[in-house]
Batch of 3 targets.
Target 1
Amino acid sequence: MIPPQVQASNNDVNQVLSLGNICLLDGSWTASDRFSGCGWVWMDNREDIQLMGTRNFTRCESALHSEVEALRWAMENMLQHSSCQSFGTDCKELIAMINESQEWPRFATELEKIETLQICFPDFKITHVPRMRNQLPGFFS
């Protein structure tokens, strides 16, 4: 079970982040495997798990590509199954990509898909969740 609060550091100041009504996501990638994978879990305002999903796909170009794919798929599922507009990831590079997409030209095609989906989320937010808090036993590995 994911704890109800997360300690995060922002400019060396500890903050407590509530995880209520959030979709946590993660991508999986290794250079030697034929497939990449991703998963997400949606928790409601009471921080009860409401829905989760995992899938695999032909191996992406890099681990970061897998993280982008995880976000895209999680966003599509939240549009279909909930009103959740907050996403959590342990990948700081993914957050940087979303906030400064022009700085990541290698990912232009993937980020265009994310930007198109973002239009459907008027209050879209992506937050860093430390790795040890962004996992469920047997789910995100």
Note: DSSP finds three helices and seven strands in the chain.
Target 2
Amino acid sequence: MSEVSRRWRPPFPLDVEGVLAPLRRGRGDPCLRHDGGGRTWLTANTADGPGTLVFRVCGDGTVEARAWGGGANVLLDGLPELLGAADDDTGFVAHHDAVARARRRSPLLRLTRTGRVWDALVPAVLEQKVTTHEARRSWRELCRWFGEPAPGPTPVGLRVPPTPAAIRAVTEWQWHRAGVDLRRRTTLVAAARVAHRLEEAAIHGGERGRALLRKVPGIGVWTAAEIAQRAWGDPDAVSFGDLHTPSLVGHALVGCPLDDGGMAEVLAPYAPQRQRVVRYLQAAGYSRPRFGPRAPVRNYRAI
């Protein structure tokens, strides 16, 4: 398989793992891996086919990248935006001391933009109303069983996310085996049927793009925001409806937990960059206080 390569010199210092953190679904993610040699491996579905991208940052700041597969050139073309080159925080003002401190601690934070809706949609739907552990397990298993092996001389176990066609072909017992309940698999199949149209959301961006995603039954405000944050680096797409985010924002900014309405009020001065505030707080290590038992991990295989 032929290899294509490219070098890119970003006009800003890079924090690769920080920028790509929203894309990584746990340490065992079969589609994104940081290896011991300072390289990052990423797989994707593109309009030109599946592809594998690997890159590393050299001592002089230059990014050396190689790619394989039908989507190789698409991935290389999108490398700058993947690493935050399209992110623009012009006009951002920290209205809270906690945000100002978090921003100083993470001066290299930039928002990634993959340009691909489908690859962000599948794990986002899997994360609906279940624990992180459950969602990541289902993601690994769907990729392993229904995603293609990553093109090129890649590390063992690297896979391309399952395509819309692959998702439509998953049988009921296979969904059950992967631990995906009826509601989430119905949403995934519905999205797979119109996946080519959903890619337009990344072109529209903003609220218009999120509204297009919400036309799919089962994709609401939370899921659309999770996709938008990754597919087009939407700086204003807050994950309203999240179990943890309102409490995190509340404790960090006003010293008490909030609901979605309260979070919307506190973050209002930051529009149209409200999600950037959440990323700064997360990067700074803020989290909601943990009280009581954790949510139980359900075993859909036994249902």
Note: The first strand starts at residue 3 and ends at 8.
Target 3
Amino acid sequence: MVFPIIMIAVCLLMGGGVFLYTKLSEKKKAVAKQAADNTAQITANEFINVKDIRGKFLYTRDGLALCYLKILPISIDLFSKSEKKQIIRQLTANLSSVQYPFKLIAVSRPVDISPLLSELSAELTESGEMKQKELLKQEILEMGGYALSGEVVERQFYLILWDKAGENAEHELLQRLKYLSGYFGDVGIQAEILEQQGIVRLCNLVNNPSYVHLENADFDAAIPVLENAGEK
């Protein structure tokens, strides 16, 4: 008589345990689903820590103000070895006086060949020779293919300055950017301070996958060697 009662009690306990486990599992799944839904509702600005972009500044959610200096490219192949050393010495001396932190970033983006296409189209319209028209059409098609494929890319370089957002922070950052721009200008390298639209484009280049160009990440092991700039 005692054994059936024990078996019934054990079955009830097991059934209660299974029921409790099922309820707890459902509750955990509901909490996880709600957390996932909340994560999905996070805006892009919250995800990349951007609060606002106004004028020449990007403001972060943790109270920082950032501004950007775009370094325009030059072709070093046009300089002699002595001219390159002179640029290195001058730029090193200029930047050695910088007593505040800054960050250098390099991003790749497809080359804008729309001016070239416009020029070719204008020549095609003005041309009166059939052979020249045919060559121009082929060139336009070729350039258009490069533009659509995104295979022709250029490296763009930016300097980033930041400080705690405050009453005089923006003015101080702009002064620092102007000095940096002057340092590069002394050696013939042009630079420009990014405005609002330029900052948005840079954010897209860095954070938007649709703007990212896939690059070859292969590299060879090598030991970098710095040349002595003081050698004649």
Note: Residues 113-151 form one domain.
